[in-house]
Request: fold
Amino acid sequence: MSTHSYRLATYAGVRGEPRAGLVVEGRMADAAPVVARILGRSLSADPVATLDILRQWDESHAALKQAAHGIRRGENAHPTQPLSDVRLLAPVLYPGTVFCAGANYRDHVAEMSKALNLPPEPDPHEIGLKPWHFIKPSAPCVRATGESIALPAYSKKVDWEAEIAIVIGRACRDVSVENAMRYVAGLTIVNDLSARDHLRREGVASDSPFRFDWVSQKAFDGALPMGPWICPLDEAPSLDAIGIKLWLNDELMQNSSSSNLIFSMAEQVAHLSTRLTLLPGDVIATGTPAGCGTARGRFLRDGDRVRIWVESVGELVNDFTTAA
Reply:
């Protein structure tokens, strides 16, 4: 992390309650005393939610950045504890809406076309297409780094999808591509898990508009691990070249960069804002690169561990088990 930087996290307090915190050089400080005045609260021990901070992002971010600077200088105004002593929760509990981009990495689209014996896909920009997203339910799907996730009993082909995710920090509607990222608080990591054997409904005609089963494929319990925290946007590297990798156990499966995005992060925010108002705490998963299990015929099994790294954000780690 660069000087004066921090990461915005949610962690479990002594009673297990979710509390917003700032991570600075491997230590956690509670965010409540830092943002209490901004949120119009007394300096009490009551926890502050990360979602509350996102709803007052501009003022809160400035205060958190200043507090991080003080922590780095060794000032005692904000007590800290080792990050190793803290149980991290998902950074946003819970996003109002989770949007997931489909087919949005050039290398992934090329890989899937080859695996399915299909002709190469044209660049959507050239044929006038817009970004394409689906929605995942929030509370049932979102899980934290370190959590064990039970694979759904109805699927034998659960696939991994490492993704850089955008966290909205200001309400936006009908914003331009040029201005879109001004409404973003920061970035996090998600694993957009997919039950590949439940994309289509059996017995429904191939040309039927009712053929696809998005709930079974995308919306099972634990289908969206998220974390470990939020990297403020002004502390992220160039959005055009953010590294992203995924390991299955110790084998590198995905290794790419946001330079392979078809629709940029700004294009995605701008397009979604033409359809509905994006609100603080909403999350946009921006797409996955090549290296998913489908192209290999390989899927998650009991005992597997998935580790995702995104440059300047951190690592999201989850173990998988067979559902009881």
Notes: The chain has two domains: 7-89, 98-322. The two ends are 40 Å apart (CA to CA). The mean pLDDT is 93.
